[in-house]
Amino acid sequence: MSAEGILKCLAHGTEERGADATVWADPAVRLVNAALLDAVRADASHAHFEPVDGYVRLRYRVDGAMQQSSSIDKRFWQPIATHMRNLAGLDGALGQEGAEPGEFTMRLGDRFFVCSLKTFDTLNGERMTIRMGEIARDPMSLGEIGLSDHSSALVLRSLVRPSGMVVVAGGRASGRTTSLYGMLGEMKAAERSIFPVERRIGYRLPLVSQLEVTTQQANNPQTLIEDVVAQDPDVLLFDKIDGKAAARSLANAASAGRLVLTSMDAPDSLSALIELIGMVDDPRHLAGRITTVMAQRLVRRLCSVCKQSRTASADECFIFGLDPTDRPTVYHPNGCPSCRSTGYRGRTVISEVLIIDDEMNDLIAEGASIADLRTTAADKGFQSLADDGVRKVLHGEVSPGELARAVDLAARL
């Protein structure tokens, strides 16, 4: 039974609580399991339990957008919240100050999830958010991720090099880890020693040594990276640069002949490059070591069953850089049972790939400004996130509204 169905039974008094709040017969246990199952069926990345006046709102984040699921009467919230706390191994009473993290695992058939629970005490009661992290065994290819032929070709060219840093930039939940593993999937693991290092393993790879970093190791990234390099890997995947020590150590690993794949928080590739330059003591320490910076955003893909066509407006043609007298066809969301009436189904990637060649390396060593780097990149045919997004709009994959939501188009106005 779905979470909505169990709530209806509770509202009509047709459910009876068991003596033990942890047994399957207990409605709180059944409701939590049903809510998590509904989240998996909807391909949700998060489940939100949000106390408001008189009830708790259950919403799922699907394809990056929030979707309403159910409303839970506050009378039932305490046993439900207590059960989720027990699952995640959290101690203490409900409603304590500050945020609390915990996690638990869940298996559904041959799918395995690590569910991260975070709680926070709000004015209306304790709010809970569960991140549904699936551990997959088969990483997607670059094409399946949604990289364009142009971006894929540039990335593949970087992966055949024996050494250097390849950096994937983006915001939180932008698919960076998926892209990093997509890059690994393009390599012949039998011919290379590959060593992924992550705070939480996202993909389980056969015949590959993987390290899930402890808190102590994460607090000393320099020692961690040096210890991993001592294991003689050809390829080092380090999930995220989050400080100067990691940036310097990874640059040293690339200088020592390793191919380094990593990611960082940054809105675009040039911003990521400038931030990396600021993380090293001397810009010359980075020049010659970094080979590629890819930036990406996840955008919702239009439902192929119900998307509706229309002629682009004159303003859209201006943004797209097209002749308004020859307006193209674009598509917008509608909604049907196939997409749960949202108009969207799944997500794809909008990307840009900045190749660091000799001229760019000279600019990095000189400490050039982002304006100089942008001008040089444009002269070499650099295609931005907006360029890739417009291409996907014209191919009917993405709506103009979704592109404007995900990418800053101000420079095209």
Structure description:
The chain is an alpha/beta fold and 413 residues long. 34% of the residues lie in helices and 28% in strands.
* Overall morphology: globular
Lateral arrangement of strands in the main beta sheet = 9-8-10-11-7-12-15
Q: State the distance separating the first and last CA atoms.
A: 51 Å
How many β strands by DSSP?
15
Features:
413 residues, six-stranded antiparallel sheet
Can you give me a brief rundown of this structure?
The protein has helices at residues 3-11, 27-41, 77-88, 142-145, 149-159, 176-185, 215-218, 221-229, 244-255, 269-279, 314-320, 358-365, 370-379, 385-394, 400-406; strands at residues 44-52, 55-62, 65-73, 99-108, 111-122, 125-135, 164-170, 194-198, 211-212, 235-238, 259-265, 290-302, 308-311, 329-332, 344-355. The chain is of the alpha/beta class.
Topology:
Blueprint: H1 3-11, H2 27-41, E1 44-52, E2 55-62, E3 65-73, H3 77-88, E4 99-108, E5 111-122, E6 125-135, H4 142-145, H5 149-159, E7 164-170, H6 176-185, E8 194-198, E9 211-212, H7 215-218, H8 221-229, E10 235-238, H9 244-255, E11 259-265, H10 269-279, E12 290-302, E13 308-311, H11 314-320, E14 329-332, E15 344-355, H12 358-365, H13 370-379, H14 385-394, H15 400-406
Parallel strand pairs: 7-11, 7-12, 8-9, 8-10, 10-11
Antiparallel strand pairs: 1-2, 1-6, 2-3, 4-5, 5-6, 12-15, 13-14
Helix pairs in contact: 1-2, 2-3, 8-9, 12-13
